[in-house]
Design goal:
By secondary structure, the protein is α/β, with parallel strands linked by helices. It has seven helices and twelve strands. It has helices spanning 2-38, 61-69, 81-89, 140-143, 156-171, 174-177, 208-218, and strands at residues 47-53, 94-102, 106-113, 116-121, 127-130, 135-136, 148-150, 180-185, 191-195, 199-203, 225-227, 235-236. The protein has a nine-stranded mixed beta sheet with strand order 6-5-4-7-8-9-10-11-12, with helices on one face. It is elongated.
Length: 237
């Protein structure tokens, strides 16, 4: 009887040892897989594909490459996409950025640049500025094509009136925007655009989209002044 009990005990020990060995093997395999995926260089970032939508050419691609270059060598599954996006968005010319890891060794990046809508400054100097008032590094050729706004960007006047003026400029249809040579806003908030030929009296920065539709029609007529202050009752003279 005692011999049978001993045999059963030895069988149970063998079973336990086998189970422990299997568990250890599984843990070793799992640990190896974790190391391979998250810590080795086997599945690290090597291919970075960047698509930049930048019609005005205001993005410094070298600055983009410097940020993304730091991700190379990082395992794709440990890539901090959100942190990279935040750093890209820290570049003034970048309006939006999306970073996605592409297993096993790639990263896709989509960037949309801000578009300068005006050249703002006092005297003869000015700098490019986007519709949200972000200042942009704009070359002289592009600068010459932008509407000039005479305003000190550091002034209280700019803090109070600039955004409304930029909203109106941004609402202009592309073909109309291309004809605008200068823009101004009075103390009471009345906006006026100087065209290559003629003047647009815009009024306050409100109903901008409606005014943009109306001015497109008005500019088909020969006139010196196009007044859309009241878009429901526009006049030319």
């Amino acid at each position: 009887m005692s011999e049978k009990i001993a045999l059963r005990r030895r069988a149970r020990r063998r079973t336990l040892l086998i189970r422990l060995a299997v568990a250890a093997g599984v843990l070793a395999l799992a640990g190896g897989a974790v190391w391979l995926l998250f810590f080795s260089t086997v599945f690290s970032v090597r291919d970075v594909n960047v698509a930049i939508e930048d019609p005005a050419g205001v993005v410094d691609e070298a600055e983009i490459s410097a940020i993304l270059g730091e991700a190379e060598g990082t395992p794709v599954l440990r890539l901090a996409e959100g942190e990279l996006e935040e750093r890209l968005l820290g570049i003034p010319a970048v309006a939006s950025a999306r970073v996605d890891g592409a297993f096993p060794s790639g990263v896709t990046v989509e960037i949309t640049a801000r578009v300068p809508v005006a050249c703002v400054g006092a005297g003869d100097s000015c700098e490019g500025i986007a519709a949200d008032a972000t200042r942009l590094d704009v070359g002289p050729d592009l600068m010459a094509t932008l509407p000039k706004v005479s305003m000190d960007l550091e002034s209280e006047w700019a803090a109070e009136h600039l955004q409304g003026l930029l909203d109106a400029i941004a609402a202009l249809p592309e073909d109309v925007h291309g004809r605008v040579r200068g823009a101004s806003i009075t103390e009471s908030g009345l906006i006026e655009f100087a065209l290559d030929s003629g003047t647009i009296k815009w009024g306050r920065s409100e109903e901008n989209e409606k005014k943009a539709r109306v001015i497109t029609v008005l500019l088909t007529q020969e006139a010196g002044t196009y007044d859309v202050t009241l878009p429901g009752a526009p006049v030319t003279y």
